[in-house]
Amino acid sequence: MRVFVTGASGSIGSVVVPELIAAGHEVLGLVRSDAAAAAVSAAGGMPLRGDLADLDSLRAGVAQADGVINLAFGNDWSNLEPCIDEEARAVETFAAALSGSGKLFVHAGLTPMVPGQVSTEEDPDTTNGPVGGRGRNSHAVLALAAQGVRSSVVRLPRSVHQRGSQYGFCSVLIAAAQKTGVSAYVGDGTQRWPAVNRLDAARLFRIALEDAEPGTVLHAVADTGDTMRSLAEAIGGALALPVESASADDFGVIGRLFALDMASSSALTRKRFGWEPAHPSLMADLVAGGYPALG
Prior knowledge:
It contains 11 helices and 13 strands. Helix 8 runs parallel beside helix 11. By secondary structure, the chain is α/β, with parallel strands linked by helices. The model has no long low-confidence stretch (mean pLDDT 96). The strands form 3 sheets. It has a 7-stranded parallel sheet with strand order 3-2-1-4-5-6-11, sandwiched between helices. It has a 4-stranded mixed sheet with strand order 8-7-10-12. It has a two-stranded parallel sheet with strand order 9-13. The longest helix is centred in the N-terminal third of the chain and has 19 residues.
């Protein structure tokens, strides 16, 4: 099928596109620049100029495709609300364009936070707090199943990683350690962070596109939850830096999330779809070191 992918040259899209093409799909990738267009073309896709705020480009992509994978998000952690609002407008645009079409719509969401427990695919999206708007956007995508759209949400953990390039939330910890000379964790560091290698996540997006029933939630979680302190210790070991507790405020707005327990499971996804992570864990990638300059 022909798949319209937003964020096609981004950290996840850049591995989803070749995953789809290797499986025999055609890809129409939304791109904002010549460099991004060249990257999508080099991967075997066809670029479409536009971005998440250009609603006409979203409509054009839907019109030319059999399905949509929405991966684009601003990720400006110092100014989240505009990014969430932009995503909401994009979801509304996709909803109007896809309603009654029977086309596929796979959306990248976030694993929910259930403090003190391990969240599952059956838990509702987190709809309050700093990222609550993203949960509401995912809920809107799932509701499209009742409007003739084969919609599903692949929930991502906060650390989608690959050695030498991407570390998710841990990129903030690495950058702070490189800048301050201390590898820090918030509070007592017992709060847990789930993670997935981006290559394993890419495979799950393809599986969702091909096999998920309307209204399905999938969890792209490989590591249920490493403690924040253990992650900081791995970073400190790789950089030969001391490891210390810090205030959540030291990390700015995103620090409010760092203080929360986020452990999550993918047991139901693995059982239903046969998805099994096969690439290195977040801890393995952190211990290996060789981080790029992120500060």
